Amino acid sequence: MDYVIGVDIGTQSTKAIVLRLDGKIVGQASAGYQVDQPQPMWAEQWPDVWYKAVCQTIAACVRASGVAPEEIRGVCVSSLYGGAGIPVNKEMRPLYPCLIWMDRRAADAVAWVNEHVDTEKLFRITGNSLDSYYGYTKMLWIKQHCPDIWREIHQFLPPNSYVNYLLTGQVAVDHCSAGNIGGVYDVDARRWSDTALDMLGIPRRFMPDRLVDSSAVVGGLLPSVAAELGLQPETPVMAGGVDAAVATLAAGVVAPGDHVAMMGTSMCWGYINPEVDAANRLISMPYVINSRRDNYIFGGAGTAGAAVSWFRDTFCQSEVQAAAQSPGVDVHQLLERQALSVGAGSEGILFLPYLMGERSPLWDPFASGAFLGMTLVHTKGHLYRAVLEGIAFALRDNMECGQKGAVRLEPRLIVVGGAARSDLWMQIIADVTGYPVFTLKEEVEAPLGDALLAALGVGLIRDVNIVKTWSTLAERAQPDAMRHAHYDRLFEQYREVYLNLKENMHRLRMLANERSLSDCPG
């Protein structure tokens, strides 16, 4: 019997599965960790945390599966979008933490690009726009603020590429991760852009020469690593890709049509398209299958599950304690019971979920979160429902941008990620967007897509449509016409309130930044 392993490095946890080729998961494991936030709007992680979690989860799921090492034919690792990636020296030692997608420190680098670079030309080459979300602006931040580190850099490696190097001793970057860096990748030629790199002042040698498909074999497991993982030496390791795209694959999306919202720490809504379109303010990168032809186009909200976690941890200690004292009860279930008694629109409360600035379509690193419309009659249940609604409005904002450039979108929305466990949230999303909501019965998301890439890379499968037999879509919510009409009016307010408050948000951020500490230690 043949098996494959799929691993996804997420922002707050790593998950791994052992999959049999009929789609049965025979072992799974996860390991959690935190994001380092040494200053407001900063978000970074050291890659040894990821590597430790990858080794821990692979070893655990192999043990749980009881599968013989020789029957495991391949491994594939995907990862969160690592922004700039990990700057390493010639000995492949990390020189600085990875500035991940959530990090918003590179505002001055964005200003420099606007002043010194032909941005329209940059957008035409890369299919992407300009924001501190993109990895190339984070690279420039390191150049501007950490010159001693900049001089030592040998290469920048995305998280999955760095982990794959530790597993195999080989360096390769998948096209999906390369494209998501933004301003350094030629989306038409499917290679690093010498023109863009010259315009930005980023040395070409920083970009690894070996660009590969997501299902390509990077190398075989090193003997010492294989022993630690309980696998055979030289077990092939595939390149992988960005987790949102791999989760979209896990939902069975292999051609234009279906669209998927991945609701984890952040929200990523995306679809496959033959063309890129920076003008519609979304993000473009090669897809994880057919990566020389198809593009993954997505819009992303900076906080989704992170906003829910923030609300829970900041305001809901009584519910946290009650859940801890009641086996089998989750704190979010307690909060949803309170929110279920509140009608659509939270009785006049509107939440802006911009707790780490905002990505598409606003591209505003200085946007900030807000509750509006509160009165003495409002309760914690009102606020919790407003948080869920605010994130649903952010999803709709991206969907409306995507509809302008998509070749075709099916009249249904697939949702994957932790949010899919919530019946209330799925109904709110259906009512806000107007789309019937479907979710996967199997709660595996990106690791399932990784397993497909592993099986594809070692030749165990040839038809990617098999992934549709590995996961099962279930209808979760139909939009209610009256609630949808009400949310249409609230969505107009959602957009208008941001525009009205934007100047104040920026001024408040400037005042906060005046008290920031120095930016680069040492």
Shape label:
globular
Q: What's the architecture of the domain at 3-241 in CATH terms? A: 2-Layer Sandwich
Strand order of the largest sheet: 17-18-16-15-21-22-23
CATH classification, class level of the domain at 3-241: Alpha Beta
Distance between the termini: 54 Å
Number of strands: 23
- What class would the helix/strand composition place it in? alpha+beta
Name of the CATH superfamily of the domain at 3-241: ATPase, nucleotide binding domain
Quickly count the helices. 18
Family: Belongs to the FGGY kinase family.
Domain Carbohydrate kinase FGGY N-terminal: 3-249
InterPro entries: ATPase_NBD, Carb_kinase_FGGY, Carb_kinase_FGGY_CS, FGGY_C, FGGY_Carb_Kinase, FGGY_N
Keywords: Kinase, Transferase
Which terms summarize this structure?
alpha+beta, six-stranded mixed sheet, Nucleotidyltransferase, domain 5, 23 strands, globular
Provide structural commentary:
This protein is an alpha+beta fold and 522 residues long. It has a domain at 3-241: ATPase, nucleotide binding domain (Nucleotidyltransferase, domain 5, 2-Layer Sandwich), CATH 3.30.420.40. It has 18 helices and 23 strands. The strands form seven sheets. It has a seven-stranded mixed beta sheet. Strands 3-2-1-5-14-13 form a six-stranded mixed beta sheet. Strand 2 (13-20) and strand 3 (25-32) form a beta hairpin. Helix 1 crosses helix 6 and helix 2 (107-116) packs across helix 4 (135-145). The radius of gyration is 22 Å and the shape is globular. 54% of the residues are buried. The model has no long low-confidence stretch (mean pLDDT 95).
